[in-house]
């Protein structure tokens, strides 16, 4: 039988990389022996330098703007976490969870606006936010995926007609190894000892094991490969956070202040100022187990036909135990000292309870228990009709599932407290706010043991919350692709069908234990709690004598005990506040023409394509209807649900024509100039498409009092259109050696259809307002008659006293919160909420420059990579803007830089990498209309490896070796949102190849 060689141009090679499949038949061993053939290019990737050669080749030969990272050898990707590797690429930055790369931002577009594909296939995503909230994001979670089976990762920053839609920032394609690409028998095993220096209670050193098997028969007709990786990691983090910063215009008074309050450096009348709701210290201990596996089977009965069947699986089990120590800011504000910022912040905040009994210090214990599981099975059949025409069928069915891993759901909060705070305050002037508590366990009205220390006998329970949340996303995708190659280029065309379904469920089950007033101190069994010094766990910040006494314990143990003690089931069985399904059916056809030639004697390439796409959307929800906003205390509200369920459903559709054009020319030897234009889209997040109002919460206090903010709810819009971006790229690259280049590029993205938040004040589900009805009005009159101040605490107590025929003075006002709840009735008015709705009403422009240089110094073995990206946007957040108005602003925009120093010589390799990201806006609604900024961050990692023998290599690596911390803030740096202290991680390991 005669054998034919299907020649590949540079463009065709790039196309096969983009598709992530072998669209053209692999070169046989016999053909590979034809080393003198100009039609065959053999790339042997065996070391770090060769890996960089391959990545450089991909960048140079690709049409459009493409960057890539290649494995130096199978099973030896540069980083154990793909996100950590991607951040080295120009224009790419990452978000970190627990100190580990999790999601990717490209050219200022966050994780929801980038498409991740595996071997060219669109991958589903699922993930539950901390605290068991509703899953809304489309973003792929890179921490779920080990890198052992990864051959390369390519970042396509310009749109292509043959690439799946959904990525405005970029399409990131993860390519795994195939056995027929690496003939013969290959077996390797690896082991790592992981040391996380942040660990507090788990094992300081945990294992990671990996194995790789790849085999082909002598005729290279059959091939099979299997990679397996399992990793365990124990870690901890400590820090502080504030739940709410409430901003308003200063009118000369402070709500809920003491009569003799002292104001130092008070804001001017009309000036914006912000008040904190609380301050919480936390310690989180985490255990994570991750398992990855990939099985690939290949069959090539004849040279013209290759069939590939692959199955990819990943599972990540996460358990977190979290302890908090907190104070809630409320009444009796005694003195406030403001800073000089335009939006004033009380950096010296104090409350003095005077003659009132001490209030509670919060000591909540929490647990998160969830599992993320992904699996994908795919079939690819590539057939060469003749020397010039190839047909490829590719299909896959993939699932991403995030679900609870405990009967109590995905998250449980056991509310604990100790009524020992006779006064409290915070110094917000430092990065780490300092908490002050005037300790008093001797007040006879609280009945504590008066031993002068915080111990378990002072602690009682309050409220138990169990949150159930799950998300499952399925994608079924089929593509039929034809590729015809001729002397001057190639033509590619195809059709695609993709269906996506994402189902999210969320519910909250709440039980009363010792109630908000912590009425049963000392009730917990002995040894349930372990004393802990919260500030001792903080090493990088000045604690300035902060109050630091607290406890750690098991939230599930407390919950199980409380179930028996207070008579309820410790099972998450609350009515679904969210039960939402989003379906998208996408059909597409594309055509792409690639041409190569000479213009004025200089080689050029042109790629022009058009993608036509039609999308049908169905959004449905089956939700439990809230039946009451219960007034449970001064400013404590609980949205309660009945047994009624209601269905909501809506359909929408839209069509797009997405052109793309790439042109590059070698203007002088080894200098390539590029121009690209494309139109790309990114679809709305799931919450923006929801068909029913969700996330309903009560107001910040009785609505009849001044300064109170309404309750909130959100409502999606199934008819939202995708973001549409017109993209332009201009760049020049000088390749002055095989592994050396300098590049500069300019990019611009003009984006329409951003989903702006449109707040509307309206009622939802017929809920009524117990704080503004006849009972509340009568209580206010009664308080005035008694000469009592009308505060939220007194107003609640008077309503409860009147409704239950109890004398207002029969107990302290705060004790009414322990004994009674106030429910709305038919005489109360409808409650207004600030309902956030989404509409396509915003547009923006993002542009910037990318600079990169890479060079190896001759035969010395030394080399470096450096890059810098600027990101500019024309819509930012106005920190002095009206806090009652929802602002639209571009998030994720920040400059980034990388510097990597490398050395490779004979059997020794070393690499040290510095990554920097500037401050950026991460949300315009951290709390209602308050912004959140992530502060500037830099990290240093290193890796050294030594080839002991031809079969055995050993390595040592470190991540975040300087222990950099993360911090977010609001309108000013004093307005802390979250501070997490992080520590270095190290790994010592080896790999043996048989």
Question: What features would you describe in this structure?
Answer:
With 994 residues, the protein is mainly beta. Helices cover 7% and strands 54% of the residues. The protein contains eight helices and 46 strands. The strands form five sheets. It has a 35-stranded mixed beta sheet that branches. A hairpin with a 2-residue loop joins strand 29 (637-668) and strand 30 (671-682). The longest helix is centred in the N-terminal third of the chain and has 14 residues, at 48-61.
Helix content percent band: under 10%
Which structural class fits the helix and strand makeup? mainly beta
Quaternary structure: single chain
The count of DSSP E runs of length 2 or more, i.e. the number of strands, is 46
Radius of gyration: 31 Å
Largest sheet: 35 strands, mixed
Average of per-residue pLDDT values: 89
Labels describing this entry:
about 1000 residues, mainly beta, 35-stranded mixed beta sheet, 8 helices, about 55% strand
Brief digest:
By secondary structure, this protein is mainly β. The strands form 5 sheets. The chain has a 35-stranded mixed beta sheet that branches. Strands 1-6-7-4-5 form a 5-stranded mixed beta sheet. Strands 2-3 form a two-stranded antiparallel sheet.
């Amino acid at each position: 039988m005669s054998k034919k060689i299907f020649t590949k141009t540079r463009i065709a090679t790039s196309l096969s990389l983009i598709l992530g499949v072998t669209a053209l038949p692999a070169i046989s061993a016999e053909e590979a022996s034809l080393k003198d053939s100009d039609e065959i290019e053999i790339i042997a990737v065996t070391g770090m330098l060769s890996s960089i050669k391959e990545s450089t080749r991909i960048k140079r030969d690709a049409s459009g703007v493409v960057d890539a990272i290649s494995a130096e050898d199978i099973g030896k990707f540069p980083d154990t976490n793909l996100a950590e590797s991607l951040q080295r690429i120009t224009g790419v930055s990452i978000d970190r969870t627990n100190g580990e790369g999790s999601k990717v931002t490209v050219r200022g577009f966050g994780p929801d606006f980038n498409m991740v594909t595996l071997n060219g296939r669109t991958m589903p995503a699922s993930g539950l936010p901390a605290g068991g909230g509703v899953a809304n994001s489309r973003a792929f979670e890179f921490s779920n995926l080990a890198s052992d089976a990864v051959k390369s990762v390519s970042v396509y920053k310009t749109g292509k007609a043959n690439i799946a839609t959904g990525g405005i920032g970029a399409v990131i394609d993860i390519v795994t190894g195939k056995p027929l690409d690496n003939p013969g028998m290959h077996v390797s095993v690896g082991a790592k000892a992981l040391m996380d220096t942040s660990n507090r209670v788990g094992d300081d050193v945990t294992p990671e094991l990996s194995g790789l098997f790849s085999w082909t028969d002598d005729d290279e007709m059959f091939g099979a490969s299997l990679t397996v990786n399992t990793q365990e990691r124990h870690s901890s983090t400590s820090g502080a956070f504030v739940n709410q910063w409430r901003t308003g215009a200063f009118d000369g008074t402070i709500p809920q202040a003491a009569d003799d309050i002292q104001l130092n450096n008070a804001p001017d009348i009309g000036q914006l100022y912000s008040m904190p709701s609380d301050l919480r210290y936390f310690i989180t201990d985490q255990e994570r187990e991750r398992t990855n596996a990939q099985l690939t089977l290949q069959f090539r009965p004849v040279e013209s036909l290759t069939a590939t069947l692959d199955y990819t699986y990943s599972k990540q089990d996460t358990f977190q135990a979290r302890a908090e120590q907190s104070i809630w800011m409320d009444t009796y504000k005694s003195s406030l000292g403001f800073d000089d910022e335009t939006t004033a912040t009380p950096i010296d905040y104090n409350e003095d309870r005077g003659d009132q009994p001490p209030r509670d210090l919060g000591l909540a214990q929490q647990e998160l228990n969830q599992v993320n599981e992904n699996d994908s099975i795919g079939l690819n059949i590539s057939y060469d009709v003749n020397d010039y025409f190839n047909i490829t069928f590719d299909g896959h069915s993939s699932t991403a599932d995030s679900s609870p891993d405990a009967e109590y759901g995905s998250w449980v909060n056991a509310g604990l407290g100790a009524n020992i705070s006779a006064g409290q305050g915070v110094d917000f002037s430092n990065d780490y706010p300092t908490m002050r508590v005037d300790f008093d366990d001797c007040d006879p009205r609280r009945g504590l043991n008066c031993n002068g220390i915080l111990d378990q006998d002072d602690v009682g329970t309050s409220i138990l919350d169990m949150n159930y949340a799950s998300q499952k996303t399925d994608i079924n995708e089929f593509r039929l692709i034809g590729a015809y190659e001729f002397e001057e280029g190639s033509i590619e065309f195809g059709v695609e069908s993709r269906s996506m379904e994402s189902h999210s469920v969320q519910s909250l089950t709440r039980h009363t234990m010792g109630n908000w007033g912590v009425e049963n101190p000392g009730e917990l069994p002995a040894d349930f709690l372990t004393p802990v010094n919260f500030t001792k766990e903080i090493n990088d910040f000045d604690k300035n004598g902060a109050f630091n006494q607290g406890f750690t314990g098991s939230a599930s143990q407390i919950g199980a005990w409380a179930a028996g003690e207070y008579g309820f089931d410790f099972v998450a069985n609350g009515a679904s506040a969210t039960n939402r399904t989003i379906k998208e059916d996408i059909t597409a056809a594309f055509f792409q023409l690639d041409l190569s030639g000479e213009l004025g004697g200089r080689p050029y390439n042109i790629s022009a394509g058009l993608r036509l796409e039609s999308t049908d959307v169905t959004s449905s929800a089956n939700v439990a209807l809230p039946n009451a906003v219960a007034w449970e205390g001064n400013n404590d509200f609980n949205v309660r649900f009945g047994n009624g369920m209601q269905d909501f459903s809506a359909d929408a559709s839209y069509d797009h024509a997405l052109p793309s054009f790439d042109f590059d020319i070698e203007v002088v030897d080894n200098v390539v100039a590029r121009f690209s234009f494309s139109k790309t889209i990114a679809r709305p997040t799931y919450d923006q498409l929801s068909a029913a109002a969700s996330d309903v919460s009560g107001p910040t206090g009785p609505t009849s009092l001044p300064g109170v903010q309404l309750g909130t709810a959100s409502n999606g819009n199934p008819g939202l259109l995708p973001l549409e971006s017109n993209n332009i790229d201009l760049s020049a690259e000088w390749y002055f050696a095989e592994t050396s280049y300098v590049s500069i590029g300019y990019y611009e993205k003009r984006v329409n259809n951003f989903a702006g938040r449109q707040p509307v004040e309206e009622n939802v589900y017929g809920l009524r307002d117990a704080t503004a009805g006849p009972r509340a009005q009568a209580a206010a009159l009664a308080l005035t008659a008694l000469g009592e101040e009308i505060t939220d605490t007194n107003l609640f107590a008077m309503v409860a006293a009147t409704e239950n025929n109890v004398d207002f003075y029969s107990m302290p006002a705060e004790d009414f919160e322990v004994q009674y709840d106030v429910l709305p009735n038919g005489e109360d008015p409808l409650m207004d909420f600030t309902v956030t709705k989404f509409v396509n009403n915003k547009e923006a422009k993002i542009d910037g420059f990318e600079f990169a240089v890479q060079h190896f110094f001759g035969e010395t073995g030394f080399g470096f990579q450096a890059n810098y990206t600027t990101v500019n946007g024309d819509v930012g957040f106005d920190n002095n803007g009206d806090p009652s108005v929802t602002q639209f602003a571009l998030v994720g925009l920040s400059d980034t830089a990388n510097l990597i120093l490398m050395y490779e010589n004979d059997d020794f390799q070393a690499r040290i990498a510095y990554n920097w990201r500037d401050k950026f806006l991460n949300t315009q609604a951290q709390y209602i209309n308050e912004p959140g900024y992530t502060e500037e961050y830099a990290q240093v990692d290193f890796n050294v490896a030594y080839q002991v023998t031809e079969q055995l290599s050993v390595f040592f690596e470190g991540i975040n070796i300087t222990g950099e911390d993360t911090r977010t803030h609001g309108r000013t740096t004093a307005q802390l949102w979250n501070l997490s202290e992080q520590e270095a991680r190290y790994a010592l390991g080896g790999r043996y190849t048989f």
